[in-house]
């Protein structure tokens, strides 16, 4: 998703800059709740494998689109940027969802810490990563060309935990097949939208507030 989508032209508006891996869920939340005033624009999900691009990519989106909006929020965890994303967000006057990555905000920070305490050698999947497992994990890590690298990448992992956003038997079967392909045990935890829903709900309330309190025109 290159340019903004789901734009509403009435009243105060909020730009959501997100990882492409959460775009489907963001748009579903907006649609299901009937929230108005949001525009979603995304950076490539493949940047999971190139986190050094994320911070400046977010800055570019803010500078390209942000001036047209009342608020800019960022649906990214730190995602391996080592604090660089937070530095950009502070410099540009935006805000982001808390947490190190989408696994944490889907599961909930406390629940995710519990999963890590149970087994630090856990590889996580979401609905998006299950759908695109071959492209992002197998091809993205070169395992289609060099299967001998599998133990190099995954030798210290013990299990796959599928953090499911939806109740989908086909995705569950595909996640289990992915775990078998990696030679790891499999668990499924249904999380729904987790803290992503809470984050967007708070932003939706802020978007509505000027209409209710300050007489912003409909």
Taking the sheet with the most strands, its summary is: 4 strands, parallel
Uncertain residue segments? 210-218
Number of strands: 7
| Gyration radius, in Å | 18 Å
Please state the second-level CATH architecture of the largest domain. 3-Layer(aba) Sandwich
**Shape type:** globular
Explain what the structure shows.
The protein is of the alpha/beta class and 218 residues long. The chain has two domains: 14-101 and 194-213, Rossmann fold (3-Layer(aba) Sandwich), CATH 3.40.50; 109-190, no CATH class. It has ten helices and seven strands. Strands 2-1-3-4 form a four-stranded parallel beta sheet, sandwiched between helices. It has a three-stranded parallel beta sheet with strand order 5-6-7. β1 (14-19), α1 (23-33) and β2 form a beta-alpha-beta unit. α2 (54-65) runs parallel beside α3 (84-92). It starts with 13 loop residues before the first strand and ends in a 5-residue tail after the last helix. The model is unreliable at 210-218 (pLDDT under 50).
Name the features.
218 residues, alpha/beta, Rossmann fold, 2 domains, four-stranded parallel β-sheet, 10 helices, 7 strands
Task: Produce a short descriptive summary.
By secondary structure, the protein is α/β, with parallel strands linked by helices.
Helices and strands in order, then pairings?
Elements: E1 14-19, H1 23-33, E2 38-43, H2 54-65, E3 71-75, H3 84-92, E4 95-96, H4 102-107, H5 109-118, E5 122-125, H6 127-131, H7 133-139, H8 150-154, E6 159-164, H9 169-182, E7 185-190, H10 194-213
Helix pairs in contact: 2-3
């Amino acid at each position: 998703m290159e340019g903004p989508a789901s734009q509403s032209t009435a009243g105060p508006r909020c730009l959501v800059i997100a990882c492409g891996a959460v775009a489907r869920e963001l748009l579903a939340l907006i649609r299901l709740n009937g929230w108005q005033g949001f525009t979603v624009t995304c950076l490539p999900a493949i940047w999971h494998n190139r986190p050094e691009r994320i911070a400046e990519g977010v800055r570019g989106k803010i500078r390209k689109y942000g001036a047209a909006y009342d608020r800019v929020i960022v649906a990214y965890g730190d995602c391996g940027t080592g604090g660089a994303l937070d530095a950009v967000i502070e410099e540009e006057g935006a805000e982001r969802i808390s947490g190190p990555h989408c696994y944490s905000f889907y599961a909930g920070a406390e629940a995710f810490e519990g999963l890590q305490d149970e087994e630090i050698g856990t590889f996580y999947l979401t609905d998006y990563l299950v759908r695109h497992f071959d492209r992002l994990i197998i091809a993205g890590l070169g395992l289609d060309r060099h299967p001998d690298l599998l133990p190099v990448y995954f030798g210290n992992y013990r299990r796959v935990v599928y953090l499911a956003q939806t109740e989908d038997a086909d995705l569950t079967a595909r996640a289990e097949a992915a775990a078998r392909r990696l030679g790891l045990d499999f668990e499924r935890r249904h999380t729904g939208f987790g803290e992503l829903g809470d984050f967007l709900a708070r932003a939706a309330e802020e978007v509505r507030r000027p209409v209710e309190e300050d007489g912003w025109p409909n």
